[in-house]
Design brief:
6-stranded antiparallel barrel; mainly beta; single chain; 6 strands; about 80 residues; globular
């Protein structure tokens, strides 16, 4: 995963198949065990478990990007892990 451990801003989550943006200008955190949690999502835009999403996020002025499957959903904060 290309998200080093830490806090992120300007988080965008996009469905790579449809191009739909599920999250704009969110915040996120990457953990030492490789989980990227971000939000706040709204109910109609919750990602689907097992589906891969393109995530872009900024940390310390540097843009990070990866396509990661969703592992938890149906909350304002959702988690992604390879």
């Amino acid at each position: 995963m290309s998200f080093p451990e830490g806090h992120y801003t300007n988080v965008y989550v996009r469905d790579p198949l449809t191009g739909e943006t599920l999250l704009r200008n969110g915040t996120g955190t990457s953990s030492a065990i490789g989980i990227f949690a971000c939000g706040p999502f709204t109910k109609p835009d919750y990602p689907k478990i097992g589906q891969r999403y393109k995530i872009t996020a900024e940390r310390n002025g540097k843009l990070h990007e990866d396509a990661i499957p969703c592992i938890t959903t149906n909350h304002q904060t959702c988690e992604f892990k390879e």
